[in-house]
Amino acid sequence: MTYVNSLCMAKSKNKTVYVCQSCGAQRSRWEGKCSDCGTWNSLVEETFSDASSGYGGKSGTQRGWVASNSASVQTLRLDQSLNEAKMQRMSTSISELDRVLGGGLAESSFVLLGGAPGIGKSTLLLQMAGGLAKNQKSVLYISAEESTNQSASRAHRLGIKYQSIEIASENNMNLILDLAEKMKPDVLIVDSVQTIFVPEVTAAPGSVSQVREAAGQLMMFAKRTKTAVVLIGHITKDGNLAGPKVLEHMVDCVLSFEGDSNTHFRLLRTLKNRFGSAQELGVFEMSSLGLREVLNPSELFLQERSQNRVGSSIFASLEGTRPILCEIQALTLNSNNSFPRRTSIGIDINRIHLLTAVLDRHLGIKLSFNDLYINVVGGLKIEEPGVDLAIAAAVLSTDRNEPIASDALYLGEIGLTGEIRAISFPEIRIREAVKLGFKQFYLPYFNKKHFEDPGLMKNINVNFLKSVHDLEKLNF
Ligand code: TYD
Ligand code: MG
């Protein structure tokens, strides 16, 4: 018997490893603290059979996915015309979703949609399936969470009736891939990664090894067959995608579906996109007939603005390529505590600490004796420092008890010395605000040079500010 034969005949052995449920690191022995990511008590014993190693190990070879020699590896010479190498995109017929994906669903892309349970992920992807079918694309929807009847009746209620959509309820990865191989859909949707399992991995569904192996096999399937694969993943309480970070590394695009389950707004955000901008935002509204796209979110976020505008200013946030107007509210109250309370929803609390220090020092408002509450209306989260001026205006307004004009917009970052720093793309933001009837603009002085279009400045009043002291002089 040759050495090779004896290797082939060796029994497939089970291997026990300890896997960190937070970062996916593997250890041969249990440790109280993961030495890779520093999480305590995150190592869990998992058993692998040798066959499962390396994305589809045994099943990959059986399916003929694994190239047997270098001759079967395809290469692409870069001197080819760009058209040949251009990626095909499929329109989902939902323009918000298309934009977030970077212009439609790219063929052979692997997309992960994350979100809290009940937020509307299955609904969104069923509607996406309907939109794709409208464009003559075939879709295989695997629901590992609901029965075929449940999914079908929901689709029916949403008015999705197309021959080219097939729904199956299955959670065995091998059967899912066999079915997909047979049906050759343009798009494969798998709902969800936490409920499917690879039989070769003995760990429970949802564990790190199962998630990694299942996602790996789906990635191989997407790349080899040029099928677009969309995978649903639940997020944990602390807002991370359940499963290891490797899942996010593996996929081409990570979308996050967010929203407060008490309100009907839903925000679809790109966290990573190999084929487009990673900062796009799509806005949806959950209704009794499924998700409706909100094509003009600024109107939506401003529609409930109160008549009493003390402590309420407007900022134009730039989400990817699109400006969205939002309301910033501030409230100050005399504090009885030696450490006054600072609460912020939608803006990083450290930013609020910095800003209160600057306003306290340079404008002499005694915020150190006041509790301060900041809120971005509509559940938006703003990370741009350009929101500083709008926060400062809202704080000044509540402190002085003076209402802010309803048609005023504030843009600018505030530095520690009280200077107002330039923001990016002021013209795009102003155009959006002008469309909604805004007429007074407060902008950093250093943005003055960016106003190349004289037509834009025609019927509006633009005030350029150099420091927070200029803000103090305003009567709102
Ligand atoms: P679902 O898509 O099942 O959420 P996920 O897959 O993220 O867990 O959506 C569930 C919620 O959406 C549920 O609370 C009901 C609500 N919903 C509507 O309000 N209208 C609808 O038309 C549909 C289908 C769901
Ligand atoms: Mg679901």
Which structural traits does this protein have?
476 residues; Rossmann fold; Ribosomal Protein S5, domain 2; nine-stranded mixed beta sheet; four-stranded mixed beta sheet; binds thymidine-5'-diphosphate; binds magnesium ion
- Main β-sheet: number of strands, strand sense, barrel status? 9 strands, mixed
Ligands: thymidine-5'-diphosphate, magnesium ion
**Secondary-structure-derived class:** alpha/beta
Beta-strand content: 25-35%
Distance between the termini: 91 Å
| Inertia-based shape | globular
Name of the CATH class of the largest domain = Alpha Beta
Report strand order across the widest sheet.
Answer: 8-7-9-10-6-11-12-13-14
How would you characterize the overall build of this protein?
This protein is α/β, with parallel strands linked by helices and 476 residues long. The protein folds into three domains: 2-51; 88-295, Rossmann fold (3-Layer(aba) Sandwich), CATH 3.40.50.300; 300-472, Ribosomal Protein S5, domain 2, CATH 3.30.230. 28% of the residues lie in helices and 26% in strands. It contains 14 helices and 23 strands. Strands 8-7-9-10-6-11-12-13-14 form a nine-stranded mixed beta sheet, with helices on both faces. The radius of gyration is 27 Å and the shape is globular. The N and C termini lie far apart (91 Å). Residues 1-11 have low confidence and may be disordered. It binds thymidine-5'-diphosphate and magnesium ion. The site of thymidine-5'-diphosphate has 13 residues, from helix 5.
